[in-house]
Design goal:
The complex is a heterotrimer of chains A (383), B (604) and C (302).
Chain A (H helix, E strand, L loop, with lengths): L3 H10 L5 H13 L5 H19 L5 H18 L5 H24 L6 H4 L14 H17 L3 H20 L1 H9 L7 E5 L5 H14 L3 E6 L6 H13 L3 E5 L4 H5 L4 E5 L2 E2 L5 E3 L4 H10 L4 E4 L13 H4 L19 E3 L4 E3 L6 E4 L2 E3 L4 H8 L10
Parallel strand pairs in A: 1-2, 1-4, 2-3, 4-7, 7-10
Antiparallel strand pairs in A: 5-6, 6-9, 10-11
Helix pairs in contact in A: 2-3, 3-5, 3-8, 4-5, 5-8, 9-10
Chain B lengths: L2 H16 L8 H25 L6 H32 L21 H15 L6 E3 L2 E3 L1 H5 L2 H9 L5 H20 L2 H11 L2 H5 L4 H12 L6 H11 L6 H18 L8 H19 L4 H15 L7 H31 L8 E5 L3 H12 L6 E6 L5 H11 L3 E6 L3 H5 L5 E4 L3 E2 L5 E4 L2 H10 L4 E4 L34 H28 L4 H13 L1 H10 L14 E3 L4 E4 L6 E4 L2 E3 L4 H11 L1
Parallel strand pairs in B: 3-4, 3-6, 4-5, 6-9, 9-12
Antiparallel strand pairs in B: 1-2, 7-8, 8-11, 12-13
Chain C lengths: L5 H11 L5 H16 L4 H18 L4 H20 L3 H10 L1 H19 L7 E6 L3 H12 L4 E6 L6 H11 L4 E4 L4 H4 L5 E4 L3 E2 L5 E4 L2 H10 L4 E4 L38 E4 L6 E4 L2 E3 L1 H13 L1
Parallel strand pairs in C: 1-2, 1-4, 2-3, 4-7, 7-9
Antiparallel strand pairs in C: 5-6, 6-8, 9-10
The chains are: A alpha/beta (383), B alpha/beta (604), C alpha/beta (302).
Family (chain B): Belongs to the eIF-2B alpha/beta/delta subunits family.
GO biological process, one term (chain B): regulation of translational initiation
Pfam families (chain B): IF-2B
């Protein structure tokens, strides 16, 4: 059984040996869901990518990009409901592409007509733009290909630096979020959180208590059956830090919602429509309830959780677990069907605001944040 | 009879102790002695009362109790003072006990309070020699005698001198005998002995103290079948407003049968009063359900209209018949009509969602599957900690219904499955159209409403209530928060809470014992041997079992100041989420509830 | 050629190519105008286009959609002349590549189909109101991808668009039924999603489309069914109606002075506000209604 540390050790040791072994190993762990939470997943993916890039061989950037895309595709296939892997790799891809465009622009003489090379995602003007674009680009690329042999190492550097920056960003996410979110809580407010597994929410609450010295009460739902232990742990930690904490069963949310000032949720992934996946079941109903009571819901999420995907088919993204937690004892003669959703999709209309490490945004603006960090071309990784 | 002997032995002791008690340092002791003296006096009064016991009537007992109430009040205050002093004394050592009431539900009676009341009651009522477990606490007959010793010695603390000890044991013995065969007087000490210290603290509120006293005074009036029912209710052995109501009506049948009108009054006047005592204790198990309240109101009405000239036997016969007729009409026939009415909505191939467990719904679905041979799927949604849905799912499954069992956290997934109807049971429907039902119902109804799935409520008109209420926080029932401590999906709440209370009790007792043992070391042989025998046999064994059992994260949450667990039982569903209420009067919109209430009143 | 009429040219384009959309026809007409007039200076070119666009929008009763085309064209010209100063090459480019725009606009429909086909799942029942080429091409593409879905088409009175779509869908073998417009409310619970096209997409992200779209949108929202708008991004138009009344259509909403022999009255277009729209499927990708505003802002203030 691979332990969580084994990945790191394997990364550290066998650097000369087959990178593919490491990848296979990582994929296997993804498939077995042995990586807990998007945070760890994002960091491990980046470590893997760092090794991958440092060992990759390519003659032109486009080849590097292609290789990274293939890796990302494999990782995404391994666990289609884990978005963190794909997200961070896409971010790195965007960094590389940006650099590539930059270079194109500085190298090519025609690039002065910036209306052509403008890195707009895509625009209404596409319709009327000059048809030479493509030919130009191809020409440029051809020129580029000849030149780029010199500065191949450059791109490796760029990618590695991008990874380092991203790791830095991810590890410091909580600070950024706290800065913004602290002002959203007033004294003696009653908060409710249905996502006790979220470390971001926990840290946020602790910091708010610590820094602003505001007294507030936190209602914690249990997330039965999958996250009850985590919920209790969460409540205990809050209570130990002198935050008034009340544990409530999941069923009592509606009854208490009229007393709740704000609902805080953690997220597992955020989609461009402003909807999100949370890794506790029941969050959707809680947010719906909050919406019904006009209680504001704010979601805390690091930027790396933003996915450039659109949740076309929500059911595809929601995971289901085994029945033993729902119904541990069953009469063998009269077996019951059970359903146990592990994650939950919260539609954008039930979330009022997203607090990220780069600022607070309305769900309707999430698409822009996503496009700022990803390239449209990388959304679909499958060929 | 060791009683008089013990009393005479005690008298000089007390006086001796009381006379030199003038220094401030011995204030504590003094109060102790005073207490004993008081008890003495009461005992004397009791003895005198006993002489006339053969002819004691209900009225007499009540009168007697009233006379003694003042004294008991004093006694109680003394005890409280003692406790406070004791707390001050071992201030740094003893962790302050908080009354665990959540900020939101401070106005509601907690299970602990109820349970403590029940415990004190049981301690007074049961005088059998066999130890047994009731209501969530341990009943060891010897305890009734013993605890007085630790209690007094502990309160006198280190100042207890060696010459005090021998009489203490004597006193304990005497008290033991006294408590075992007397009634009211044993009650308060008995309570302190049996209820765990934590629960004891809850009686700080004067109101609850007096209500308990009231109950204890009248405990002799309580019919055994009511006591049995009380425990069944308190332990959630009988759940659901209809089963509870039926059980109550059955118990009342027995009560009426065994009732004998005291001299000088009439059945129509006295029986109502007598029933009130039964109801008071029933209330302590759990707050009365609306069905029970309605049935009681009806019954009292029926009693009051009985002609005082009717002979007792005949009147009782009439009442018994009326009670069974009431149960038949209001519940059995009503259910049959509801099933007839509701069946039109159970269609072939439809998917029906239901929540928790409802008797009439189970019957409805089984009827449709078995009698009408319809093919449909039922999704039973359930929630922690009661898991009532498991019972319903199991019942349906056994009758061949296609059942899917899910928890309330999976609501989103459930409603993605092309659900056709949501059928809900009710605890009560309020006059403003709100549905008062098992907590979680409102959320389910809301989700259904937002997805345009019709929500149907099946409900006997017996459940209609005159009350109006706007949100779930103002009036609700608090269940035991300890039910939520365990994480295991298979928790049986009652067992767990019993275990919890038991272990807590044992722990406290062993602590008391240790303390008293240390204090009594020089010559407290009899006490120590006795206590050690009991602790070594019972306490350690249970202790180990509780420790070996899987540890929960929130064990000991009571000691964490800022941690609270709220476990409410009901919530309110606004009428706009409800499409239709199916009653024996046909299908109604929620707005018609007050209409039926007026109608129903005129009928009854 | 001095008799050049922008309106006639526009109508001719629409007539010749049934696949062409109104904004594209307007752009084509303006390109033709440039070719004919061949302005000598930047200022002349701009003035010519401006007055022609005004003539065009004034003369055509249903001008919202074509206004979008004129706007884009104007902005493109202005941008290239003012900001980059290369108006000559711009004019040249426009004149020479008239046909290219048409083919591009058709391309964008394919792109929409590719993007939008993810919105259709197996066993879906989809309600469509009005006829839209974008919606049709999306269905066609999805059917080619072997997605099994069924379509409910509204009759789309007072036009015959429902019938048109019905027969087209039947031709390519997609199971389809047609209902009267007023039956939407009774079937809305049975459908999974709603697709509509758009004449124009307003600044707020709301859409202007065949009359009845608004009621379908309200019903869909009430039933919590996703309501998707399938449209090309050149239909984004810089206007911000607050309600259907704001559209200032030639046919007043309620005209009580109508002659008795023609009893039917009322508008042929209506405005569906953004809160009823789940997402817009465009050639720029899947947009939330709020993203429309961003695109327009970018176009006007870049």
């Amino acid at each position: 059984m691979p332990l969580p540390s084994s990945a790191q050790s394997s990364i550290a040791t066998a650097n000369s040996s087959d990178i593919n072994v490491t990848i296979e190993h990582f994929i296997a762990r993804l498939k077995r869901r042995q990586i807990d939470g998007p945070y760890a997943m994002a960091l491990e993916t980046l470590q893997l990518l760092k090794r991958f890039i440092s060992q990759a061989r390519w003659s032109h950037v486009s080849e590097l990009i292609e290789q990274i895309r293939q890796l990302a595709n494999r990782l995404e296939k391994a666990q289609p409901t884990a978005f963190a892997c794909g997200n961070v790799i896409r971010r790195i891809l965007a960094v590389v592409r940006e650099e590539e465009e930059e270079e194109l622009r500085s190298n090519s003489p025609q690039a002065t007509s910036s209306s052509v090379a403008e890195p707009m995602i895509s625009s209404m003007f596409n319709l009327l733009q000059k048809p030479e674009d493509k030919q130009q680009k191809q020409q440029q690329q051809k020129q580029q290909k000849q030149r780029s042999t010199k500065n191949r190492t450059d791109f490796r550097q760029v990618a590695i630096q991008g990874i380092k920056d991203l790791i830095d960003e991810i590890t410091n996410i909580d600070d950024g979020i706290q800065q913004i979110a602290i002002d959203l809580i007033h004294d003696h407010e009653i908060l409710l959180t249905p996502t006790p597994e979220s470390k971001t929410v926990l840290k946020f609450l602790l910091k708010t208590r610590e820094r602003s010295n505001r007294r507030f009460t936190v209602l914690v739902t249990e997330g039965f059956p999958n996250n009850t232990a985590k919920a209790h742990e969460f409540a205990k930690k809050l209570a130990q830090h002198n935050i008034e904490t009340i544990v409530i069963p999941d069923s009592a949310v509606f009854a208490l919602m009229s007393r709740v000032g704000k609902v805080i949720i953690g997220t597992k992934a955020v989609f461009i429509n402003g909807g999100s996946i949370s890794s506790t079941s029941g969050v959707s109903a809680v947010c719906e309830c909050a919406h019904e009571f006009k209680t504001p819901v704010f979601a805390v999420a690091g930027l790396y959780k933003f996915s450039p995907l659109y949740p076309f088919d929500v059911e595809k993204f929601v995971e289901f677990g085994g029945s033993q937690k729902v119904l541990p004892q069953m009469d063998p003669e009269h077996r019951l069907d059970t359903i146990n959703s592990i994650t939950d999709y919260v539609p954008p209309e039930n979330i009022d605001i997203y607090i990220t490490n780069v600022g607070g945004f309305a769900p309707s603006f999430i698409y822009r944040i996503a496009w700022d960090n990803y390239k449209q071309i990388d959304v679909q990784l499958e060929m | 009879m060791s009683e008089p002997q013990a009393a005479t032995e005690q008298k000089p002791e007390v006086k001796n102790g009381a006379s030199p008690a003038d220094s401030a340092a011995k204030a504590n002791k003094l109060s102790n002695k005073e207490l004993k003296e008081l008890k003495k006096k009461e005992k004397a009064a009791k003895r005198s009362a006993k002489k006339t016991e053969s002819g004691v009537t209900v009225e007499d007992q009540q009168a007697m109790a009233q006379v003694k109430r003042e004294r008991k009040q004093q006694q109680r205050e003394k005890q409280l003072k003692q406790q406070r002093e004791q707390q001050q004394k071992n201030g740094p050592k003893q962790v302050k006990k908080y009354i665990k009431k959540s900020t939101l539900f401070g106005h509601l009676e907690t299970t602990e309070e109820r349970r403590a009341t029940l415990l004190s009651l049981t301690s007074a009522i049961t005088s059998s020699q066999i130890s047994r477990i009731t209501a969530g606490g341990l009943m060891v007959p010897t305890i009734t005698s013993e605890p007085m010793a630790p209690a007094t010695t502990a309160s006198s603390g280190g100042s207890a001198s060696s010459d005090d000890n021998a009489p203490t044991t004597e006193l304990a013995k005497s008290l033991a005998s006294m408590t075992l065969d007397s009634e009211e007087f044993s009650v308060v000490p008995g309570m302190t002995s049996i209820t765990p210290h934590a629960s004891e603290q809850l009686f700080d509120s004067q109101q609850s103290v007096s209500s308990i006293r009231e109950l204890l005074i009248n405990k002799d009036l309580v019919h055994p079948s009511i006591i049995l029912l009380t425990f069944q209710l308190a332990n959630y052995k009988i759940v659901g407003s209809i089963p509870r109501c039926i059980a109550m009506l059955e118990a009342f049948q027995n009560v009426v049968t065994d009732y004998e009108t005291p001299q000088g009054t009439t059945l129509s006047r006295n029986l109502t009063n007598y029933l009130s005592h039964q109801i008071d204790i029933l209330k302590k198990a759990r707050p009365l359900s609306v069905t029970m309240g309605n049935a009681i109101r009806w019954l009292k009405q029926e009693i009051s209209v009985i002609d005082p000239s009717t002979p007792d036997k005949e009147a009782k016969q009439i009442l018994r018949e009326k009670i069974s007729q009431f149960a038949r009409e209001k519940i059995e026939f009503a259910d049959r009509l509801i099933i007839e009415n509701g069946s039109q909505h159970v269609e072939n191939g439809s998917i029906i969602v239901t929540y928790g467990s409802s008797k009439v719904l189970t019957d409805l679905l089984i009827y449709n599957a078995v009698e009408l041979k319809k093919d449909f799927q039922v999704i039973v949604v359930d929630s922690r900690p009661l898991f009532e849905g498991r019972k319903m799912a199991d019942q349906l499954r056994r009758h061949g219904v296609n059942v899917l069992y899910a928890l309330i956290t999976s609501l989103d997934a459930i409603f993605n499955m092309n659900v056709d109807y949501v059928f809900l049971g009710a605890h009560s429907i309020l006059s403003n159209g709100f549905l008062y039902s098992r907590v979680g119902t409102a959320m389910l109804a809301m989700c259904a409403k937002r997805r345009n799935i019709p929500v149907l409520v099946c409900c006997e008109s017996l459940k209609f209530s005159q009350r109006v209420q706007l949100d779930s926080v103002t009036l609700n029932e608090l269940a035991d928060p300890n039910d939520l401590v365990t994480v295991h999906p298979d928790n049986c709440s009652v067992e767990h809470s019993q275990k919890d209370l038991l272990s807590q009790f044992i722990k406290e007792r062993t602590e008391h014992k240790k303390m008293s043992n240390q204090e009594n070391k020089p010559n407290g042989k009899s006490t120590s041997s006795r206590s050690s025998s009991s602790t070594s046999t019972s306490a350690p064994s249970t202790n180990t079992t509780t420790e070996s059992a899987d540890k929960n994260i929130l064990d000991g949450w009571r000691n964490m100041h800022s941690l609270n667990i709220v476990n409410i039982l009901y919530d309110l569903t606004p009428p706009e989420y409800i499409k239709k209420i199916i009653t024996e009067f046909g299908s109604l919109p929620p707005s018609s509830v007050p209409v039926i209430l007026r109608e129903y009143k005129s009928l009854a | 050629m001095s008799e050049f009429s922008i309106t006639d040219t526009y109508l001719k384009f629409l007539e010749e190519d049934p696949d062409i959309t109104m904004p594209i026809a307007a752009i084509e007409a303006l390109v033709t105008l440039l070719r004919v007039k061949n302005p000598k200076t930047a200022a002349e070119m701009i003035n010519t286009i401006k007055s022609a666009a005004k003539d065009l929008t004034d003369s055509i009763p249903n001008s919202i959609s074509l206004r979008a085309g004129c706007d884009i064209f104007m902005r493109f010209v202005l941008r290239n002349t003012h900001i980059y100063g290369d108006w000559e090459s711009c004019k040249q480019h426009l004149i020479e590549n008239g046909q290219l725009f048409v083919s591009r606009s058709k391309m964008s429909r394919t792109k929409i189909a590719q993007i939008g086909c993810q919105f259709i799942a197996d066993d879906d029942v989809i309600l469509v109101h009005g006829f839209s080429r974008a919606v049709f091409s999306l269905f066609k593409y999805a059917a080619e991808k072997f997605i099994r879905f069924r379509v409910v088409v509204t009759e789309s009175r007072p036009t015959a668009q429902g019938m048109q779509l019905y027969s087209l869908l039947q031709e390519i073998g997609i199971p389809v039924i047609m209902i009267v417009d007023s039956a939407v409310g009774s079937v809305i619970d049975k459908v999974n999603k709603v697709f509509v096209g758009a004449e124009g997409v307003a600044e707020s992200g709301g859409i202007i489309n065949l009359v009845g779209t608004y009621s379908v949108g309200v019903l869909a929202r009430n039933a919590r069914k996703p309501f998707y708008v399938v449209t090309e991004c050149h239909k984004f138009v810089r206007m911000f109606p607050l309600s259907p009344v704001d559209l200032s259509l030639p046919e007043e909403a309620l005209d009580f002075s109508k002659p008795a022999e023609k009893p039917l009255s009322g508008p042929t277009l209506d405005y569906t506000a953004q809160e009823y729209i789940t997402a817009l499927i465009t050639d720029l990708g899947v947009l939330t209604p709020s993203a429309v505003s961003e695109e327009l802002i970018k176009m006007w203030y870049d």
